[in-house]
User: Which sequence fits this backbone?
């Protein structure tokens, strides 16, 4: 049988082409890996620390400016809702870097039950969270690299109920950055429900049914009904677990207006997003302006941001959100969000120097 001409040569060409393509992929992958590493390397020093509080240990991270021994002014981070770890899965690091460039350290810790920390965050009240933060602040004041006279707060969403309580417990809080903070639990819940229904294109009948379900839940919360009764009343719990029901039962009467006056005279930066389906920013701004004088209250609006101050065009695409978080995490946030906070902190040092 006659052998096909060029058979071995053709195979060698195919192999060479495949090897060249593989080599190119390796180069591209190495380049992407290098990009991810560079973009997720921050100009700061992170130290893992432990804070003793109430017989348990808080697993915390202290992020210090890249250079210097301090003492540095400190931003204490207070998380929003959910099982959040000290870095918020890396989400906080661009802020820590920005604050470090203004000469500030940052302190944050795992919620109870997160990342090996003891306890369960769903067992906490807003008062518990405030006492926990106060203990962390007391710990920080004992460190030689922290300026105990210049400690302030950063908090988002649910932290809107915690920040004023911390200020009420600790009269030495020097500033606060409140990002999309909630004010009244019931009003916030109704706003969130309706905003999500509108976003998802719910019909009038679906909206009416959801509101009836909500009223049933509020009635049960009002008389301290157990979880089993809630399930019997509404049928499908739709993600409301027994632990979550207990958490809501302990906290559903939260209203920041009783504690916000504790921040009077303290420089407060109120940060509000234009695409916030979680918090009614109009209601929040009205409450802050009514209860806190301006100045020192400052209000910053970000029309293109979502509740977490991530750019709306990025957050609405899961693929784009993931790629941005990996390859350009500093650009996740609405334009100006990082720099405006840094300027706010820098202005505090300038004001103190002037005084």
Assistant:
């Amino acid at each position: 049988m006659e052998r096909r001409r060029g058979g071995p040569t053709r195979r060698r060409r195919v192999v060479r082409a495949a090897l060249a393509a593989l080599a190119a992929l390796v180069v591209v992958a190495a380049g992407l890996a290098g990009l991810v590493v560079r973009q997720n390397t921050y100009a700061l020093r992170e130290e893992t620390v432990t804070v003793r509080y109430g017989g348990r240990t808080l697993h915390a991270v202290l992020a210090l400016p890249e250079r210097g021994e301090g003492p540095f002014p400190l931003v204490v981070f207070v998380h929003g809702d959910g099982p959040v770890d000290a870095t918020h899965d890396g989400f906080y690091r661009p802020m820590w870097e920005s604050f470090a460039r203004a000469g500030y350290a940052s302190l944050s810790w795992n919620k109870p039950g997160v990342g090996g920390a003891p306890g369960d965050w769903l067992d906490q009240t807003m008062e518990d969270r405030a006492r926990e933060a106060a203990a962390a602040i007391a710990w920080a004041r004992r460190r030689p690299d922290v300026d105990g006279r210049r400690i302030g707060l950063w908090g988002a969403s649910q932290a809107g109920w915690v920040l004023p309580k911390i200020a009420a417990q600790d009269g030495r809080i020097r500033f606060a950055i409140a990002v999309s903070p909630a004010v009244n639990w019931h009003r916030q819940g109704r706003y969130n429900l309706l905003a999500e229904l509108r976003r998802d294109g719910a019909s009038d009948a679906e909206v009416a049914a959801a509101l009836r379900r909500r009223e049933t839940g509020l009635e049960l919360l009002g008389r301290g009904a157990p979880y089993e009764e809630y399930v019997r009343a509404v049928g499908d719990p739709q993600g409301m677990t027994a632990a979550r029901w207990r958490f809501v039962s302990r906290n559903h009467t939260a209203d920041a207006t009783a504690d916000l006056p504790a921040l009077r005279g303290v420089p407060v930066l109120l940060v509000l997003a234009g695409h916030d389906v979680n918090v009614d920013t109009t209601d929040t701004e009205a409450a802050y302006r009514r209860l806190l004088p301006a100045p020192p209250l400052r209000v910053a609006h970000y029309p293109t941001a979502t509740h977490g101050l991530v750019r709306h065009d990025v957050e609405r695409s899961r693929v784009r959100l993931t790629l941005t978080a990996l390859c350009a995490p500093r650009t996740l946030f609405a334009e100006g969000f990082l720099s405006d906070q840094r300027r706010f902190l820098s202005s505090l040092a300038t004001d103190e120097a002037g005084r």
